[in-house]
Write a structure and sequence with these properties.
254 residues; alpha/beta; four-stranded parallel beta sheet; three-stranded parallel beta sheet
Amino acid sequence: GLEVGGKESFLSNLVRGMNPDRFTSALWCLRKQGLFYECLLRDGHAVRFIGKRPGLDLAALLRLRHAIASFDPDVVHVHEFTSSFAAWAAQIYGKSRFRVVATLHGGHTRLPAAKRVLYKIILRRSAAVVAVSQKQADAMRAELGASVPLFHIPYGINLSRFSSPDEPGRKRTELNLPAGVPIIAMVARLERPKDQDLLIRAAPAVRRDFGDCRFLIVGEGARRDHLTRLVRELGLDYCFHFLSNRTDIPEIVA
């Protein structure tokens, strides 16, 4: 998908950062369109929605195979299990002879046992595997051995977005935050692996040691109701602010 999330931001930055004199790119979005899809399409990038349904969708596989054959790429860059499986199947049943580079973002650690075995088979057929953290690289290297080149490449961040932020006081006013009060912000999807619960449960101890402070939870996800309820149960409504998805993260960080 190309909704709001870390993998999606990574992919958007990767496509935008490629040298157009050396590379021609196309994106095939399997399941969800979302904000990054709309922004890339608006800015003239070649993006196509495949419309895959949950589970094994042979019609979507045929659409993907046709898209790959029409574009005739040298490299197909896949992210996590679903896109890896789809590209592997298209490679087997299609006529294109592309190489696959697979990037691991951590989702493979939560796969059911059968899918995890299949995923390792697919990864061994890749030209290379990239992990976004050294810990992931070490763990997967122990599982795959020397069967495929495996690299750790950290996320790239466009630091120029953070170089000249707006006046922080203006953002405080906009968010109804008092001047001079320390602010703790967490930017992440509201999903279990991100563990906003830990920040919320730590808040009373933080306030005991440092006095009045405010907490910003930036993002959206399936656990929003759970998290707002936890804040309410702990009596922290007045110091926690849920800001949903934002495009002004540099200003919030400042």
